[in-house]
Amino acid sequence: MNLLQDIVYLKGVGPAKAELLRDELGIYTLRDLLLYFPFRYVDKSQITTVKQIQGESEPVQLLLECVSFTEVGMGRAKRLTGRFRDSSGDIELVWFKGASWIQKNFQIGQTYLVYGKPALFSGRYNIPHPEVEWVEQSRWNAGNTFKPVYRTTEKCSKKGLNSHGIAQLTRTLVSQLPAGLIEENLPEYLLMKYKLISREAALREVHFPQDSKKLESARRRLKFEELFFLQIQVARQKVALTKDERGVVFEKVGDLFLDFYNNHLPFELTNAQKRVVKEIRQDVAKGFHMNRLIQGDVGSGKTIVAILAMLLAVDNGFQACLMAPTEILAIQHHQSMKELLAPLNCEVALLTGSTKTAERRRIHQGLLEGSIQLLVGTHALIEPVVQFQKLGLVIIDEQHRFGVAQRARLWAKATIPPHILVMTATPIPRTLAMTVYGDLDVSVIDELPPGRKPIETIWRSDSRRLEVFQFMENEIKKGRQVYVVYPLIEESEALDYKDLQDGYDSISRRFPRPQYQISIVHGRIKPEDRDYEMNIFIQRQTQIMIATTVIEVGVNVPNASVMVIESAERFGLSQLHQLRGRVGRGADQSYCILMTGNKLSNESKTRMETMVRTNDGFEIAEVDLELRGPGDISGTQQSGVLQLKIADIVKDQSILLVARECALEMVEEDATLSLPKHYSVRRYLDEMSRGNSDWSKIS
Ligand code: ADP
Ligand code: MG
């Protein structure tokens, strides 16, 4: 058996499922499946009875028979309650959304495994939005105590690849694995010192743990491994850069920079912007290699800093490029750079996945010959076919979507590696930033441009929707534009899309054509259409933009003054803050309206109150850290600071610190990792860098 074998060859997969696994879940090979870890486990040994429920804090698992359904309430307050029972008593399960779907899919008299947090309501417990699974009694008694729960998508679920279906595949795979096939990738001395179990044992145990203790050691081992290899990369990069890499020198501040700075800046820079520009200038003049992270809250004006740095490169005879995480953003950056730099007579090219062949050729040629000096684009920039004559500076916008390894690939594009500037709005507390982006120096833009009115944040319950519509109408009458954002979570994708559609319908009724025009953007819309919808909003042809979080990052529409966030309780704090940052970019007073249901957990309340209280991204990040204590693995993973498979840089800080220490020590002693005792580490790194689809995610 070869773990790099295509997933299609696993028993039970076949071409159709293989395609879904690839496209939806990024699982190409057997190894990918083996590394597709459960994000949660249901402890099957623990079944609570209705009578035993004691409080609201802990989720419970019940085995319940479905008795009946009733719909109660009106309009948006409408909910569906299901009566369920076991031998000890009755309990209500409550859904505020998706009533018809639920009624269609449940059968009266059937038994279900129900998992969720009880809520106390009028002296009785109910369970809002539980996870429910149909169980066959016979299958129920067999099997492991811990059942893995895998992340999946609606499309996969429909074709039998729900969590259970994926578990069947991992079970097949794990049971077929010959002993010894999975090689250890950590040195023996580390395993001993930190009492880590072997990689092989951990990978088997993490999917089908025998008990909670074994699960814990498997997870600890895999987290350590993940963080260790992340830190090894960071450490090696740092050593490589300080030891042997000379940086290109931008010694002069030339005509382009000065002309732009003195005559064409559309506004005066804030002191923070000036300071960061200065830090960059010092870096690039020294002859060292710049590797700098600019952290600046949303709207703090990072783009202009990037432009100035790029001009500095061109003044010194180098090319510069700016890489954005999405096509929409790349187009926007390109557009605004073209306008700003128009008086300077300096071409800015745009290269994305959808650049037409002829234009693409022209750009490739121009970059190679040096006739194009400035380039803006997406991931398309890191493809090997894109070659520069003299690349001196690479700027990466919204850092968290690019890993260490991706950055490393950029350097291959020049004999002396270009200076690197990464810009992020994700407010990560400084200590964490240093640990995760340990190879970077950090600059902070801690000041917003003047004259900007702080965004006013308002928290409203769903029942006041009509008022909110009225408010939107008033703003639109003043010529402003409005975003309405809906959550979209993988695990509840189907229901979420339904909500989005319902929302779209009710907004379209309230704001009818032709008086009003509405844009809609979400993941099920083709990328071309998404860009089109986004562009007509940018051009003010539509007044309302209905979207999922695809608009979270970077988009700049200064005329938009209202951000309505639906089901705001379902977003994490950092996401809410990012979304709010989409407004308040012009001179007008802007508003963020958080819409929630009436019944909220204490944590959700704290999140809403924090948003209402402060606009400060760093303060919000601190609260966020506090809130995300133990538990709830999925939430942090989705907040997207880093795409880690199993570890969590917030909760697993103690493991992170140890792993970092080990990695630094190892690299200091043996930068090339060629000592025999480091053989396993070296071999694993080599294996991973050899065309692995996964590596960028790990790093
Ligand atoms: P972000 O840091 O979120 O990328 P942008 O660079 O997109 O922010 O800037 C947000 C808005 O603020 C833009 O419309 C930009 O033109 C404006 N802006 C940036 N710096 C200043 C400044 N010093 N004075 C006034 N407006 C500014
Ligand atoms: Mg930006």
Number of strands: 22
Q: What is bound: which ligands?
A: adenosine-5'-diphosphate, magnesium ion
User: How far is it from the N-terminal to the C-terminal residue, by CA?
Assistant: 27 Å
Which assembly state applies to the chains in this document? Answer: single chain
Q: How would you sum up this structure, described in words?
A:
Helices cover 41% and strands 17% of the residues. The protein has 26 helices and 22 strands. The strands form four sheets. A seven-stranded mixed beta sheet has the order 6-7-4-3-2-5-8, with no helix packed on it. α14 links the parallel β12 and β13. α9 crosses α24 and α21 (602-613) runs antiparallel to α22 (617-627). Adenosine-5'-diphosphate is lined by residues 267, 269-270, 273, 296, 298-304, 425, 449, 556, 558, 585.
Brief synopsis:
The protein is an alpha/beta fold and 699 residues long.
How is the secondary structure organized here?
Layout lengths: L13 H12 L4 H5 L5 E4 L16 E13 L6 E8 L2 E7 L3 H7 L5 E6 L2 E3 L2 E5 L2 E4 L2 H5 L4 E4 L4 H5 L4 H14 L11 H6 L5 H9 L4 H32 L11 H10 L6 H15 L5 E6 L5 H14 L3 E5 L3 H15 L6 E4 L5 H13 L4 E4 L13 E7 L6 H8 L7 E6 L5 H7 L4 E5 L10 E6 L3 H13 L3 E5 L7 H18 L7 E4 L5 H12 L5 E4 L12 E6 L7 H8 L10 E6 L5 H12 L3 H11 L5 H7 L13 H17 L9 H11 L5 H4 L1
Parallel strand pairs: 4-7, 10-15, 10-16, 11-13, 11-14, 12-13, 14-15, 17-22, 18-20, 18-21, 19-20, 21-22
Antiparallel strand pairs: 1-9, 2-3, 2-5, 3-4, 5-8, 6-7
This protein binds adenosine-5'-diphosphate (ADP) and magnesium ion.
Magnesium ion (MG) binds next to helix 12.
